Amino acid sequence: MVEVHKVNGGGPTHEGNVYLIVDEVAALIDAGRDASAILHNVGEVIDPRDIEFIILTHCHHDHIAAVPALKAATGAKVLIGEGEVCDLGDDVATGSYRYGEDPAEFGIDGTLEEGDIIRLGEWSLSVIGTPGHSPGSISLYEPKARALFSGDTLFPHGNIGRTRRSEEAVRDLVRSIERLASLDVLVLYPGHMEPTDDEVNEQIMASLAFARSIH
Ligand SMILES: [Zn+2]
To answer: Which of 111, 130, 146, 206 would bridge 82 by S-S if both were Cys, CB 3.0 to 4.6 A apart?
Structure first.
């Protein structure tokens, strides 16, 4: 039985959600900012050194700042969307300047693109390219569990990720949410706010309507 645990620290706005998936292989989705809280929470479930992958939905600081410390503590391989690699190390593109911090520096062990599948055992995560919130954002869908890890592309209750407000970014975001709206989703694990299993397809349709309204 696959387990998913939300393992990030408590800061509601300064840290993205971090999910621990425990399957035959364990993986983190995103890395947040507070490595010691994350490692503590992971340690309640498994030995952190059993984490095989740290999969990043996008390159924003609130989702990646803890990567160097988490990578050192776990030895996990870091994977990120192909389209995000060029923005790593940039304090504006990652938004690290908002925190008065330097961009996180770490090596990438692999890049992901649309159609890639990450096999964890019982679960296989399909990579869906969902640009808009950032140029190379990805979402991850698990078809058996109908679970969607949406990063900052969309959030519960009809919310959406902010964009750079260029027409192109908004158009990309609408298209990306259209893609996600075509899935059958039972459980949504968003990059911020709480996971939800309450009429998720309807919630995603509300996000799509909202994104179209700013188009
Ligand atoms: Zn973000």
So the answer is: 111
